[in-house]
Amino acid sequence: MADHTHPNPLVTLSDSALPRLPKNVKAPIYDRSKLTPGIVHIGLGNFHRAHQAWYLHQLMQKGLAHDWAIIGAGVRPGDAAMRERLLRQDCLTTLVELDPDREAVEVIGPMVDFVEVDKHNAPLIAAMSDPQIRIVSLTVTEGGYYVSETGGLDTDHPDIQHDANNPDRPITAYGAMVAAYKARRELGAAPFAGQSCDNLLRNGDVLRNTVVGLARLSDPELAQWIDETADFPNAMVDCIVPATGEAELALARRLGIDDTAPVTHENFRQWVLQDNFCDGRPPWELAGVTITNNVHAHEAMKIRVLNGGHQMLANVGEVMGLQTIADCMAQPTVAAFFHKVQTNEVLPHVQAVPGLSPKDYLSKIEKRFSNPKIHDTTRRVAFDGSARHPGFILPTLSDALHTGGGIGGLALVEALWARMCAGTNEEEGLIAANDPNWTVLNSTALQAKNTPSAWLKMTHIYGDLVENAQFHSAFSHWLSMIWSLGAEAALRHYINSSS
């Protein structure tokens, strides 16, 4: 742990500075100049660097996978700023593990370049067209796959329409992937594997549907080639990684490193991966990755308990003015609410996985969420609820309704989300726009204050649940109580109820 009395000399992160890093900082022991790329990763944020890049770094430290280095990429204008920061420090990243009892620091270096961010993605297409790239991976958030209400590709979305009509000048990651597949096919090269690293059930299948569906709009023959020859492995990914702000930048400096894009993370990682790669893969299992063809049970447990649990906490946290997930778990009423919903209404619909029961998994999640060193803000976790609630909460709610299970707590979760989207917390503070569909959510939430059923008319979110009388009644009951008595009073009513 760093000496707080006598701070380490500040080292500006770069290849040349690696020998001068503080003694307590683990650094690459491999020759980065000899790394060659094998992966292009689109959406190079904190999670990727604390997760997939970390696993690759572990292999490189063992003398393995030196031909699988990462080239970073982005398709949004804001990604250019990250590119500039990382290139300035030779694509190195400082990772700080936040354990309640210690801080562990390491610098990782599996990333070797970051392609220029271009509106029509020509540099990205060129990078992915290179046959030495055998995997293209993505972290683009759960709502970034252009999935329609029926589960297929949203062909009416303007971005998809643009890429279908302009396949040589795409603006989406998927359009760029389609263009690169076309180039590789024309070269006679093998396709790359498309690897989603987002929190989606069957994320590889979702990615396949998006890419193949988009290709079909402009080139059905190419779409068939992609579908028949390219692989899209399913995976479950897990590590809590807060956003980087001034506190994280200051922490890195206190530990002796001037890093303009450091990453903090919890002392837990998990990656469960389907062994389905059309042109090879790094030996991930030697770095602790679980390779299995039964990914679904692992991802269902994680998405329903952890990701669903995040929504349970983040929405009520925003309403009650609690700043972080750990703050929510430290609030007795919120913690009791979380435990009851999970135990009574979520776990009955979660299958065990080898070596881990749903009950034991929940215990691990409660401990991880309670880590006070992880400043994971409720605002960050609550972002994009219009994608996260349908993905993380509503499948469990549907299962409970179909099997006659309890739904009171899950309906309360939805009511708390509706209350949050009204745009103010209970201290009359502003809750700023926090969803790509915020305008619609906000106006609907304000209408639902007096007419709760207005919220449930959003069929693009709730689908056939809007017709369910049991859910409608429970939701209306809780939302009315939240507005009249307050969120904590509603939580207490639920906790003390027999349901």
TrEMBL record:
Annotated keywords: Oxidoreductase
Domain Mannitol dehydrogenase C-terminal as annotated: residue spans: 294-482
Record-annotated Mannitol dehydrogenase N-terminal domain positions: 38-285
Gene3D superfamilies (alphabetical): N-(1-d-carboxylethyl)-l-norvaline Dehydrogenase, domain 2, NAD(P)-binding Rossmann-like Domain
Q: Does the keyword RNA-binding apply?
A: no
Protein name according to UniProt:
Mannitol 2-dehydrogenase
Origin species: Shimia sagamensis
